Amino acid sequence: MNLSNAMAERLNGKIQELKTVGKGYRTFANFRSAMLFFHGGLDLYPH
Questions:
Q1: CA-closest candidate to residue 41, choices 1, 13, 14
Q2: Cβ distance 39 to 15 under 8 Å?
Q3: What is the pTM of this model?
Q4: Helical spans, DSSP H, in the chain
Q5: Quick check: 4 pLDDT over 70?
Q6: Is residue 18 exposed (0-12), middle (13-18) or buried (19+ Cβ within 10 Å)?
Protein backbone atom coordinates (compact mmCIF):
# COMPACT_ATOMS: atom_id res chain seq x y z
CA MET A 1 0.00 0.00 0.00
CA ASN A 2 1.39 3.42 -0.99
CA LEU A 3 1.01 6.14 1.61
CA SER A 4 1.82 9.76 0.95
CA ASN A 5 1.76 13.00 2.87
CA ALA A 6 0.83 14.98 -0.24
CA MET A 7 -2.44 16.24 1.26
CA ALA A 8 -0.67 17.55 4.37
CA GLU A 9 2.04 19.19 2.28
CA ARG A 10 -0.57 20.84 0.06
CA LEU A 11 -2.43 22.26 3.08
CA ASN A 12 0.86 23.45 4.57
CA GLY A 13 1.70 25.20 1.29
CA LYS A 14 -1.68 26.95 1.28
CA ILE A 15 -1.17 28.13 4.85
CA GLN A 16 2.32 29.41 4.03
CA GLU A 17 0.91 31.27 1.01
CA LEU A 18 -1.77 32.85 3.20
CA LYS A 19 0.89 33.90 5.72
CA THR A 20 2.91 35.57 2.96
CA VAL A 21 -0.07 37.38 1.46
CA GLY A 22 -1.73 38.29 4.74
CA LYS A 23 0.94 40.02 6.78
CA GLY A 24 -1.72 42.45 8.00
CA TYR A 25 -3.60 40.13 10.36
CA ARG A 26 -3.54 41.83 13.76
CA THR A 27 -4.38 38.75 15.82
CA PHE A 28 -3.97 35.02 15.53
CA ALA A 29 -7.76 34.66 15.72
CA ASN A 30 -8.12 36.70 12.50
CA PHE A 31 -5.41 34.63 10.81
CA ARG A 32 -7.07 31.41 11.96
CA SER A 33 -10.42 32.57 10.60
CA ALA A 34 -8.83 33.36 7.25
CA MET A 35 -7.22 29.90 7.12
CA LEU A 36 -10.52 28.20 7.89
CA PHE A 37 -12.47 30.37 5.45
CA PHE A 38 -10.13 29.95 2.48
CA HIS A 39 -8.97 26.38 3.02
CA GLY A 40 -11.19 24.72 5.59
CA GLY A 41 -14.66 25.29 4.24
CA LEU A 42 -15.73 27.71 6.97
CA ASP A 43 -19.28 28.87 6.38
CA LEU A 44 -19.83 32.46 7.53
CA TYR A 45 -23.61 32.08 7.30
CA PRO A 46 -24.77 29.79 10.13
CA HIS A 47 -27.80 27.62 9.46
A1: 14
A2: yes
A3: 0.48
A4: 6-21, 28-39
A5: yes
A6: middle
